[in-house]
UniProtKB/TrEMBL annotation:
GO terms for molecular function: copper ion binding; oxidoreductase activity. The keyword Transmembrane applies. It comes from Streptomyces parvus. It holds the Pfam family Cu-oxidase_2. This is Multicopper oxidase domain-containing protein.
Amino acid sequence: VGVLAAGIGGSFAWYWTSADLSTVGKVRFGNELAVPPLAPSTVDKDGTRVFDLRMQAGSTEFRDGAATPTWGFNGDHLGPTLRAERGERVKVRVRNTLDEASSVHWHGMHLPARMDGGPHQMVGAGSTWTPHWKVDQPASTLWYHPHPHGATEKHVQRGLAGMFLLDDENSGRLALPKTYGVDDLPVMVQDVTFDGAKFDHGHRFLANTGFLGDRTMVNGTLDPYAEVGDERVRLRLLNASTARIYTFGFDDDRAFDLVGTDGGLLAAPASMNRVQLSPGERAEVVVTMRPGERTVLRSYPWRDGNGWERRFNGGDDSFDVLQLRAAERLRPSPEVPGRLAADRGLELPDADDAVRSRHFELRRSGINGQPMAMDRIDETVTRGTTEVWTLRNGGDMTHNFHVHDVQFRVLDVNGKRPEPALRGRKDTVAVPMGATVRIALRFDGPSDPDVPYMYHCHLLSHEDDGMMGQFVVVEKGQRAGEVPDHAGH
Ligand code: C2O
Ligand code: CU
């Protein structure tokens, strides 16, 4: 502790006493895991699948007799799971009934910039925004959440988040568990602290890393357990916390199969007993159960490549997340297929095709030395080209890096081949203190010189404070347009 604490400054004692989940409130597994409903949809005459999402204020009883003020989509807290097929046209009617402006960003989705739901597509209080696009990317576990500049953390913490699942021909054929809510479970993990009935969002690690709650909830359920009736269960893990990093594993250290990352299935399953997710990242894992057993999904201390436990972002804690209870008789499940991705492979860019490289220096105070400005385009990329971006965290604390619109390939971490969990399709990657991560990205979307996409740290208070930049995709030789300071407010 001494050595690492020296590197991160003074007030660590406060942190150990206020946010160490291993010593705070033992998890009792008294509540059955809530599974967000699948959002109903209608199909227009032209074949477009249409969803309705209403942002609303309400209250939720997380604990008996205590009504917590919360926000949700189509309900009091969190949102339904949207689901669509590759090749489909989708449209979402987003109605904001809150008394302040917000937005809805489709995290991980490949779509035109003006449909992206970033800070330039604000939905004012009382108004409706109706983005539409054609789903053109592999089956994956994506999610949606607000993105109002400077207030994303607050809006997500109050409960505005949901999953967006994509299917394709390949995923429909594969013998993976795929019955939603039965052997295919959304597992959205968030940390919370209560002050009486209310959420208390003031718990900050060294004031700077961000909020670290003292309890976890899954899909909005505290102390959750899930009954499992199948021999194999697929967990779609999403870190929807605003700063905490989780290193998921099971209490008996059993191996599980990692089958998918942020943007889709891996080429082949990878057997492991830990998978680390920083805020915004997803992992799909398949766990094999024995009849009648109980096993607990936990978060373990994070060890980096040097075997060090990294004491940041709550990464040193061990705590329970979700108990799985297997029935006495389990329906047999097929073996996890040895080959997962479709014939088209991972559809990831190749570094050899890169026509340009860029460098991003990640600091708490901003990226490449400046905080985000709504009316400044930081990078202009050419449609149809591949680039290599170097992400460097020179030292103040752990960050991560998320890029809108694309799924990228992680080329190397500190010059070394990435571990299996980083070899799939990624839209968010952790960049620990002192690390350099190189990624290859291909910008295939439609060009729009006037509407930027974002790249940013997904520790939400960092993003809110300006660890974000904007890029536009243009035609060859075209220049970036002008962006208004408060577009769409
Ligand atoms: Cu999930 Cu720009 O964010
Ligand atoms: Cu950060």
